[in-house]
Protein: Molybdopterin-dependent oxidoreductase
Organism: Streptomyces vastus
Amino acid sequence: MSNETATTTTVEAAPAQDPSPQHGLGASLPSAESRAKTEGTFPYAADLWAEGLLWAAVLRSPHPHARIVSIDTSHALQMVGVRAVVTHEDVPGSAMYGRGTADRPVFASEVVRHHGEPIAAVAADHPDTARMAAAAVIVEYEVLDPVTDPEQAFEAEPLHPDGNLIRHIPLRHGDSEAAGDIVVEGLYRIGRQDPAPIGAEAGLAVPRPDGGVELYLASTDPHADRDTAAACYGLEPERVKVVVTGVPGATADREDQGFQLPLGLLALKTGCPVKLAATREESFLGHVHRHPTLLRYRHHADADGRLVKVEAQILLDAGAYADTSSEALATAVSFACGPYVVPNAFIEGWVVRTNNPPSGHVRGEGAMQVCAAYEAQMDKLAKKLGLDPAELRMRNVMATGDVLPTGQSVTCPAPVAELLQAVRDFPLPALPKDTPAEEWLLPGGPEGAGEPGAVRRGVGYSLGMVHMLGAEGADEVSTATVKVHDGVATVLCAAVETGQGFATLARQIVQETLGIEEVHVASVDTDQPPAGPGCRGRHTWVSGGAVERAAKMVRTQLLQPLAHKFGMSTELLQITDGKITSYDGVLSTTVTEALDGKELWATAQCRPHPTEPLDDAGQGDAFVGMAFCAIRAVVDVDIELGSVRVVELALAQDVGRILNPAQLRARIEAGVTQGVGAALTENLRTARGLVRHPDLTGYALPTALDTPDIRIVKLLEERDVVAPFGAKSASAVPVVTTPAAIASAVRAATGRPVNRLPIRPQAAVVTNGH
């Protein structure tokens, strides 16, 4: 086996067809930034520079919980080259901020609630001076006992003025007295996964002549960041501008607002541009992580394996502050039963504050944790009933028209049975030789010291689901403008390109609609109308929908004169490959000739149908749409050492419509790889609230050698009629489904319960047949 096979591979889901178009929807159009990123010339936030630049550094708490007795900045201010030091006393506006709930201080003032919480920030002439000055700020602490067990948070003294309980959702669906012939129970724990952005946070703040400030950031939600900053600085939003610089990949809220806000404060105080480039340690301590979760489940089924009732208790650890934890809990509770028909469900969900690192939005939040638990339960049911695990799942899968435990009908395509059947029928990979020629094929690789005779192969299944867009009444809206001049189209939309491919999609939409090949997507800043955050497939739906509507309006402007001249409606004209033709062939001209030097433009909005919050019984139409995925995992486990090698992941996914085949495959592969990390290696460990090894040595991301063969065996195109283009979110659902599939395969190989993620070696060791 060559080294090339260690990297991601795929199998085309569809039979061979005619070559794909070179532009427009359906083409594998490459990213406009791909060349610059490959050559290393792409300007990231860490590359920014300005005349008279100062450097910033942030002093962070070494304790997870302590009372601040005093803060002395005098020594730092006396250091040569130090231009300013700011603390909570220097915040002129709102001292609190937060993505969902404004409960987090810009700088801790009386109490620190997590390891790494900002205390002060320094601006100096040199980055080393700034770091030394931050270390010279003397803080006297009264160390307090941290609350790190979320179960203890219910009885502990309040850690925050808002209390320890952030939200409680009791979901009630069906008959509470219903019971099944077969009952299985389980307790599951999910670890703290970090989004681990490729580039750590960096940014530049530049004061403006009007007393405002411009922030140059790798922001994924620039308008929300601007509004937060303006409130903190005591300025009108119009006097704060956020300019989005090169984003080095984002799978979550990669930008820590606690990192952004000191930048502007220092720039306003010094009157100079201020730059801050976080270390990897600061990045780990500052931004949010996946919610560690404790889950207790009880599944009831009849003798044929049909689910009768699901009971569950779900406890999410929010860390010190609320952030988006309320939304994560709603997702976890709503999808606690998975893509299965469950007539009776009784779920209790809580999310609480602790002194652990902060949690928030990470791709698939809430859904990934419950998927690992309910799929473990399905494996237990199958074993107790003596059924094939895939067959048990097939007997219970959801379909369009079924009802979620929240009472919401699934109106979008839900081809779960077809997805499961596709991975079930896909040929299994060949078994390795007894003595592999390449030792790295053994679990643990050549240094694993494993024996081929101790290796066991396992096959497992998982079905996952995610929601798209915001939920529970979130107002999802985006605005876009399309301009055409001199045969070139320009798209203006504040949707940030985070690696999800929106900028490429926007070009394809305009190419498809207007027949103009040269399309540019303008850089993003807050002078444009808002487009919202880049998560949950939002920009494909709402921002792509806004671009399409604006492009269609320009198309009408372009075609109306021709239609009027020939006495026909614009609907009878079509644009293909830059040519305008009529249905009867009478009219045939080019788009360039039709434009005739004119400048056309239009602005449009896209706003999906509204949703509603869950009520006191966890009922309500809370979600706009859903996406589904089935994965079959094949693993080799060394049952003496507990090391695991994922051999292959076969995936089938409903994608609505394939808009860019190459881009779609890349997004799915990236999501699967992130799921592999959550299953086997990624866990930001803490000891009584202190983060251990906050670096990429102590936090193990999967590499190319850890990534298995990824076989995309089916991409089901069943368009969602309410979504623009009919497309669905692509990358979150593989993240959700992959860890559960790997855990299922390890269970099959070892017979062990595997009730914790990431899977620890001791969980896969088999001794004396157990």
User: Anything to note?
Assistant: Residues 1-18 have pLDDT under 50 and may be disordered.
